[in-house]
User: Fold this.
Amino acid sequence: AQSVTQPDIHITVSEGASLELRCNYSYGATPYLFWYVQSPGQGLQLLLKYFSGDTLVQGIKGFEAEFKRSQSSFNLRKPSVHWSDAAEYFCAVGADSGGGADGLTFGKGTHLIIQP
Amino acid sequence: DAGITQSPRHKVTETGTPVTLRCHQTENHRYMYWYRQDPGHGLRLIHYSYGVKDTDKGEVSDGYSVSRSKTEDFLLTLESATSSQTSVYFCAIRQSRGGTEAFFGQGTRLTVV
Assistant:
């Protein structure tokens, strides 16, 4: 079974500074990887996804992520954060093997705080 | 935005009472999921459906049942609510598996007192 680890529960970044959120996954085959963002009281919104091809993936709101197979990682980055980026961020892995319709497996999330 | 509606959005219920949460989609997606979100646990899969009348258990299915009699509706039932089921519940839909993303509803905040 697949699993996702987000090592950082909270991260505080100054507005305008760069950001990197870490995500490590465990899965036996080539994974499908996703980053979602959740603003307070809201549902989850997809930022970007990776399933093949170029290992550097561009997403919405200026975010990007890089898939590194050798490190089993899919870290999310943004060169300059804005106060509106304060939210909860979730990394997820999806599978496409076997029977059934297994859903995405999520990490526990990283809470991003933006300092003025 | 994906056409997903969860109802109710908020509910307070007493321990031991039955509760049903509804997820309605207008996208005609085959796969539907119920997750619960709790602090420190992220999102955990409760049950999922891969078609009308086709459902299966997820990671945390004890105390929950589901039904899908129409493509557009996926119901989550707590037969006898307990305080440990106080949570935020999210419905999600996917067109297919693998590399396709899930679209989420706005969530239902359930409090069991």
